[in-house]
Design goal:
CATH superfamily: MetI-like
CATH architecture: Orthogonal Bundle
Number of helices: 10
Oligomer: single chain
Number of domains: 1
Structural class: mainly alpha
Strand content: under 5%
CATH topology: MetI-like fold
Largest sheet: none
Helix content: over 70%
Order of helices and strands: HHHHHHHHHH
CATH class: Mainly Alpha
Length: about 270
């Protein structure tokens, strides 16, 4: 009976994952249809269609220009995102379990959330110059408060009755963390991580546009100067493709696995 229940839950989870993929494909097809219509109305000079953009993007890959810039931007975005996720998750959980830490951190997090990334970018340019440190730092300060707030809310909203029962049963500390706290906290962390992932790419491209000689942002600056709309859209499409791949091929399977783990633990 238990084996049948496990097979059924795995089958339902697989169907749900496939359906989420088809839903994403359907929304992309709708977007491409609207884009094609806009291109037919305004012309290739203003808004090249999807086909013209993909042809230009393919040409950038054939010329060997695309991969180095994409790898550079990905390295910067993921470096800043990784540090923000690590530090923000740990400190957020600590703040969520401590009223004093939450009170002390609240105004700081409000300032970080309210300050626009472009302001941090200007300061980073003054502090670090035109190297890798400027976009990485800007990504960290833009993503950290998002992750921190998600972790803090997850830790604060853990059911106190559940923790009281676990304490009265004298569960080991490891079991308390992995079977009581983490299943609940992770449900808040994953949306924060996905939001931070999108923010990291937006911020790194903006930082490279203004403060770097390489990366996708710098390539966009060149295509803008040359009034090459097709290349600009090609770079945008490449970044979005990497972003979607990271979400659906990396984060989404982990999310499905964690959701099954949450169901089993409850």
């Amino acid at each position: 009976m238990a084996g049948w229940r496990f097979l059924r839950s795995s089958f339902v989870a697989t169907l749900s994952y496939l359906w989420s993929g088809w839903g994403a494909i359907a929304s992309l097809l709708l977007f491409l249809a609207v884009w094609e219509f806009g291109g037919s109305v305004y012309g290739d000079l203003v808004l090249p269609g999807p086909l013209a953009t993909l042809v230009q993007l393919g040409a950038l890959f054939d010329m060997g220009q695309a991969w180095p810039e994409l790898v550079t931007s990905a390295r910067r975005a993921l470096s800043g995102l990784g540090l923000a996720v690590l530090v923000g998750s740990v400190l957020g959980v600590i703040a969520g379990r401590s009223i004093t830490a939450a009170a002390l951190s609240r105004p700081l997090v409000t300032v970080l959330l309210g300050m626009p990334p472009i302001a941090w970018l200007v300061l980073a340019m003054l502090w670090f110059g035109m190297g890798d440190a400027t976009p990485v730092f800007t990504v960290i300060v833009a993503c950290f408060p998002i992750v921190f707030v998600g972790a803090m809310q997850g830790a604060r909203t853990v059911d106190n009755k559940l923790t009281d029962v676990a304490s009265s049963l004298r569960l080991p500390r490891r079991m308390m963390w992995f079977d009581v706290y983490l299943p609940h906290v992770v449900s808040y962390l994953f949306p924060a991580w996905i939001t931070a992932l999108g923010t990291s790419w937006k911020v790194v491209v903006m930082a490279e546009l203004l403060a770097s000689s390489d990366g996708v942002g710098a390539a966009l600056a060149v295509s803008r100067a040359q009034l090459d709309t097709a290349s600009s859209l090609g770079w945008v499409v490449a970044v979005l493709a990497l972003l979607l791949a990271a979400e659906y091929l990396l984060l989404e399977p982990i999310k499905r696995h964690v959701e099954r783990w949450q169901t089993e633990t409850t």
